[in-house]
Amino acid sequence: MAKHAYLSASSSARWIACTPSAQLCARMPDESSPYAQQGTDAHSLCEYLVLKALGRRTRDPTEDLTFYDAEMQSAAEGYRDFIMEQVEEAKKLCSDPMVAVEQRLNFSRWVPEGFGTGDCVIVADGLIHICDFKYGVGVVVSAEKNPQLMCYALGAYDAFGDLYDIKTVKLSIYQPRREHVETYEMQLSDLLTWADTVLVPSAKLAYAGEGDFHAGPHCQFCKVKATCRERAAYNMELAKFEFSNPDLLSDEEIAEILARADQLVSWAGDVKDHALEQALAGKHYDGFKVVEGRSTRKYSDETKVAEVVEAAGFDPYEKKLKGITAMTSELGKKKFNELLGSLIYKPPGKPVLVEAKDKRPEYNAAINDFKDNSMEEM
Fold first, then answer.
1. What is the CA 314 to chain-centroid distance, rounded?
2. Contact (CB, 8 A) for 248 and 242
3. pLDDT digits (tens, 9 = 90+) for 88-105
4. Closest CA relative to residue 264, chosen from 299, 302, 225
5. SS3 category, 141
6. What residues contact residue 307 under an 8 Å CB cut-off, 6+ apart?
7. What phi, psi does 133 have (nearest 5°)?
8. Contact in structure between 127 and 166 (CB atoms under 8 Å)
């Protein structure tokens, strides 16, 4: 079983913001999930494709992957192509950059017992580039001042800084299922300043189990998020608003609610999930009981159903056009673009209200109506 760092890079955003959460989470058992296994499978496939592209000996893990499918293959191939593009860019700085895949990185110089694994680390004259693959679809992960990647960069600098005259650090997130690819660039001096002024003090408190609890977006992956009193107090502040009459709220009050609405919904869902788990284990909550939820009818034997319907003279199957990911896998990227490139378009997304700091351009109803009408005329 792989050893996990007490103050891991992957959870650094949380324990930097809420230092005592590290000790609480360390006491809780690790729980596996299909989503975690899916991410592990995708990383294994990415590692194989990148190593193969680099000309290194490696074994195809496909037959061992639980969740392997066409979407995962396409995502991993895109990541491989992205990495090879970054390697070519690094070659402009030196002819033979160092490229490490699934590289163990030790940043214990700043964080007690701190270590982690970088998906891909590229080091060239003047440059460290940390590339991280994210297969999740729940949250778009930003590369800008990303604590996890900054910890990895510190580990890479500690390991290779004596061999290369590092000046610049690049942090990249490749998140294909959210169509999100982002690279953030910073100076090494800024990274080291952050390490000394933010990371080291927070790590010292977190390692000792000290400091104050702070709730926020970082709570999402905390093991005690459902029962944390600080998070409950943070979200229950919204109870002061009279939700039954939203038209009577001021614009300022609505803006305050909007800023916290997603976190409030997430917290409420976490509490409900925790309560159900406890109730199934025998705990009773006054005024509540566990019942069987609604379900839909299913065929007990699909093969038999098809035989019976065909024997009666009917067609039991419906014909459906393959999706873009499956079709790309069927034809190959080159042939897909050659045959269908002109027949592919990306419609405008549904309007969504987000915070002003979001990097996406502001929605323009007139422009999007024009796009919609243009596609209808094709």
1. 46
2. yes
3. 999 999 988 999 999 999
4. 225
5. coil
6. none
7. -95, 130
8. yes
- CA 14-142-98 angle, to 5 degrees, is 100
DSSP string covering 24-81 = HHHHSPP---HHHHHHHHHHHHHHHHHHHHTT------GGG-SS--HHHHHHHHHHHH
**247, pLDDT greater than 80:** no
3-state SS class at 104: strand
pLDDT of residue 78 exceeding 70, the answer is yes
What's the rounded Cα separation, in Å, for the pair 276 and 71?
A: 33
pLDDT in tens, 121-159: 999 999 999 999 999 988 899 999 999 999 999 999 999
Q: Tens digits of per-residue pLDDT, 259-273?
A: 888 888 888 888 888
Kindly tell me if the per-residue pLDDT of 241 is higher than 50: yes
47 CB burial (10 A radius; 0-12, 13-18, 19+): buried
Q: What is the distance between the alpha carbons of residues 225 and 219, in angstroms, rounded to a whole number?
A: 6
> What is the reported pTM?
0.77
Amino acid at site 240: K
CA distances (Å), origin 50, targets 102, 136, 157:
10, 20, 22
Separation of alpha carbons 23 and 1, rounded Å:
21
Q: Put residue 313 in one of left, alpha, beta given phi > 0 → left and psi -120 to 50 → alpha.
A: left
Q: Report how far Cα 196 is from the mean position of its chain's Cα atoms.
A: 27
Q: What is the mean pLDDT of the chain?
A: 89
Closest to 139 (Cα-Cα) out of 253, 266, 237, 42: 266
Separation between Cα atoms, residue 259 and residue 167, nearest integer Å: 37
